[in-house]
Amino acid sequence: MGRVFLVELESAGGGYYRCRLCDTPLALADHLISDSFNCRKGKAYLFSKVVNISVGPPEERSMLSGMHTVEDILCCLCGQLLGWKYVSAHDKSQKYKEGKFVLERWRLSEVIAEHLNSDGHPGSSDGENP
Ligand SMILES: [Zn+2]
């Protein structure tokens, strides 16, 4: 396995998701495709991009939506199994998931962007005096 690079997401401004066990940032709320994804263990999130992960070898797996080639996703820091990546879908209707990442919700903690624009710049709008 190659060298692992931690990528910081915290400067991004929006909300993000991190590993529940070690707090490593994993994905931006901006890259969330679906928060109503279901897997056998419950709810999961579908992302277009995740970081700070290592992936396992590709394998054929029978999912709820049919056969897929997937790779397990592990947290690069603590090694927790987080979810999987869709490498290819056998069913044409599932092709949109190829190259996407599924993270199981109960393995994540969610960081909501707080106080966006609440204490930053004063309003820059200006009205003319009548
Ligand atoms: Zn972790």
TrEMBL record:
Keyword check for Transport: no
| Domain Yippee as annotated: residue spans | 15-112
Domain of life where this protein originates: Eukaryota
Instruction: Provide any one GO MF term from the record.
Output: metal ion binding
The UniProt keywords, alphabetically, are: Metal-binding, Zinc
Similarity remark: Belongs to the yippee family.
What name has this protein been given in UniProt? Answer: Protein yippee-like
- What is the taxonomic lineage of the source species? Eukaryota, Viridiplantae, Streptophyta, Embryophyta, Tracheophyta
